Amino acid sequence: MISPYRPDGTGGFMSDFSVEAEAGELGFDQRRLARIDAYLRPFVDDGRLPGWLMTVSRRGKLVHLSSYGERDKEAGRPVTTDTVWRLYSMTKPITSVAAMMLCEEGALSLTDPVAAYLPAFADMRVFTGGSATDPVTEPARTPITVWHLLTHTAGLTYGFLRGHPVDSIYRAHGFEWGRPKGYDLAACCDAWAAMPLQFEPGTGWNYSVATDVLGRVVEVVSGLSLDAFLRTRIFEPLGMTDTAFHVGPADTERLAALYVPGPGATATRGDFGPVPTSPPRFLSGGGGLHGTAADYHRFARMLLGRGELDGVRLLGSRTVDHMTRDHLPAGVSLKTFGNQVLGETAAAGSGFGLGFGVLKDPVALRALASPGQYAWAGAATTLFWVDPVEEIIAMFFTQMLPIGTYPLRTTLGTLVQQALVD
């Protein structure tokens, strides 16, 4: 059954993360909110997804929390509110916040060249022609800056994108979904710096390892490993007790299994290697975190609070405002300036800020939404968005790789928006 609360395995209900207000108190129609579950439930019933969890909150109060299906079909374990999810690229906004905290302290500047902290990036070259096996390159005219990393305009890429010869070069060096065995974050950054850029920094947008490089900058500037910085400066202050680059041995049964589309579009368990039960060698600021919905909700509430949650302030209000503005050149969107591989994310009317996708024009998107809404998603079809106009946070979690197997973002946005009646 779908319930606003989930069984804890002993016949009771989990109380640490639960609905806090009646729908009507926060301007929602409860019957209209129920349309969210009615839309999502068939994805499990017909086997396309193993299970899911969905939340909607307004003005900091959770008004809708539902889950359905299983986090591990083979073991028969249901989705619960304490299920641990692979966040993948929903790690990126967290690493971006870490970098902006250092900027606020004067330890880092958006205009700083990355080479000032990572010397391997001092003499970058740009791909201009040829092939992956015989590339033609020229020296980059513009140094990569911290701002380029935050906005994905550095010219870096991902090997799994398969849209450009440089993507193939990454794969040839062992960078597709993973990295060469034994590489830590520093070694990965050195390897990426030795490969050509797709374009001159600042002249395009390409989803990439930029946030991983940013995580290494955080390490060098702070003098802390990325996991230590995130734990002491973000997770502990916000009370995010279940978010880390690994899953403790006692918590592995809470981790949702990872699935891929199988025959007949049936969710089939994927084999992606062992789950890290101790801090991994490679600390991926671009995609390495695991966490619960409750934890990520606290992070999102901090953003909606313009840097503050429950008396703890991580960022100044104007810093969050700056991060969630569109930073792309005037007159362009991700649809025209981007790499066209991210489906709904790279849509008309969409821009990009410092670590988030930003909706500039809901009319161009052809969907119910608010201007200024900011969001991001993870490779296993996790997603969140913050609507500062309506003061809404919405989150969706499942574990289906790759993202885009079932485009959900626009429809879920409409379903949340249509439930508002105030």
From TrEMBL:
This is Beta-lactamase. Pfam families: Beta-lactamase. Residues 36-400 form the Beta-lactamase-related domain.
